[in-house]
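Why Lysophospholipase, alpha-beta hydrolase superfamily? Reviewers of the renewal asked for a concrete example.
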Amino acid sequence: MLLHGLGATGEVWRDVVRDWPGSWLVPDLPGHGRSPRIERYSFGSLAAEVARVVPREPVTVVGHSLGGVVGLALASGWFGVDVTTCVGVGIKVRWTDEELEKAAALAARPAKVFPTREEAVERASRTAGVPIEHGVSEVDGGWTTALDVRAFGVGRPDLPGLIMAAKARVVLAAGENDPMSPREHLEELVPAPVVLPGAGHNVHVESPSSLRLLLTERP
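Here is what the prediction returned.
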């Protein structure tokens, strides 16, 4: 199962699954893309909604950024999903009070309506950090991003607690040029994070083949 980051949609994994062996599941997170909005956004509520669509069989979860934190929550077993391996890519470890305040402000801001679909797609892509097409919807008066901006208020994840609770094999990785997830930050959580050469924050888009290596490596 592949879980995208904040503001994106499942379409960002298209180059990963193109040559993927076996079966795969790529949902849009709640409040993103084609998935419905939920009452309150927390890592637990996101994981609970995702768990509803996961078959009751062993699964490997690969999550990017926010999706990686949701994957760790699922790996706890609290939501009835049997996660065997959880790969978190580009998870932001350190959050300042200023960053959290900015995120909370974004969560409280009303969504902007654009006169054309193209303008809404441009805004959705800028928010996601990668090009996306399915992250917009038509509303009265024009087009807007499908993202429920309240998702920005999800808060700071308890990563040490989630990793301690995980019943699955946990792999943390990031591109060597990812400013949000540098090696020294990941080393606060796991002894040997995987650093992917030449990549930035969006490894799954920049270097999709490298993710297969993460799944085939063993400690």
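The domain at 2-95+151-216 is CATH 3.40.50.1820 (Rossmann fold). This is the kind of structural detail the renewal will allow us to pursue systematically.
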